[in-house]
Input
Amino acid sequence: MSEKFDILIRNAQLRGRLDKFFCAAGTAPCGHFVQIGIADGRIAAIEESIDGKAVVEIDAHGNLVTESFVNPHLHLCKVYTLQMMDEAALRDYHAAEMGKAMTAIELAARVKENYDESWIIKNVRRAIAQAALFGCTHVRAFADVDKKARLEGVKALIRAREEFKGIVDIQVVAFAQDGIVREPGAADLVRQSMLLGADVVGGIPWIEYTETDIAQHVKEIFDIALEYGKDVSMLVDDAGDPGLRSLEMMAVETIQRGWQGRALAHHARAMSLYPKPYFQKVAALLKKADMGVVSDPHTGPLHARVRELLEEGVLVCLGQDDISDAYYPYGRNNMLEVAFLASHLLWMTTSTEMETLYDMITVRAAQAIGLKDYGLRVSAPAHLVVLNAPSVLEALRSHAAPICVISHGKLVDYDKMRTMSVSI
Output
């Protein structure tokens, strides 16, 4: 009996490890193309041959079909603000050993004096439309909350979350960019953000002036997270100082609060300078805390020790971080481009390492931000990309936009997203 689907993808190539999975399950011989049926927003069938029809049929022509991409770290309230700034913050943040990282953040904060939801939302729409074009259907997005930014960024991101519902899922992070202790009132603004509908509590403890204040920052962020039942994202050890220990403090607090699997560390650039014994101690704490690390090696001269974290069994993924702002002049919300850059910066160039990089912008990134039931398997929500490449190697080589993107079981309207991506 012929089945009926909303979308049917024919002649799809699957990643090698998925072929092995299906081979073991007896549903598709290794190395053969498959067909993927989608119905009611979910993947309904993955078979070598499907006797069925669909409203929309897509011929993948032997190209790769995978899960869509996930961006676990983007400062979305700041996108396309570079032209509003001089380059002082950019110079300091990218200076050797990142000794002026705190100064860079203080310089970059000047743009927030002009924050207003009315212009922020236009930039946000452009960036999220680009995400859709490049097959990124999930973004954890940061919005600064402090006495300059107030709640303008949070309001814009919540608005965009509703506008792009069903196309790109946005997790809004209320981010205390300028500190909690050194910025009186920031904790209250984070709480107000939760009441407005923000999804994640965000902090940056290393920016505080003393170790005591760093610990207090971590504690207050977790206080708010537990009060509202929210996940935590923190930018930690983001400077060239091996004495920074905010990553360790965050991991310990996660364990003590019983928030395992609900806390995510970002950057941890000082990790590149950690003594080996201390690195191993922190890696053990990360595993005990069930806490992942998002690395953005392309946006700063230092980065987390990705290879060693992987060897230690720590969850690691990649993020875009910034798009044309005071910290980074480039960016397109293209996670294949991020992985391509990481391949060079991390010297991950073997076929096995390329597969790992691909995991770091798909399944590992999804796990890091708490996505449930995400993946290319029957019954999972249909978030897929049909790439213009037959393999991970070719996908990374060209980092081109997919032929088509499927989000929540529906084709993304490319024409609409393309128009939005070039207009402000």
Q: What stands out?
A: The CA atoms of residues 307 and 346 lie 8 Å apart. Residues 17-30 have pLDDT under 50 and may be disordered. The two ends are 50 Å apart (CA to CA).
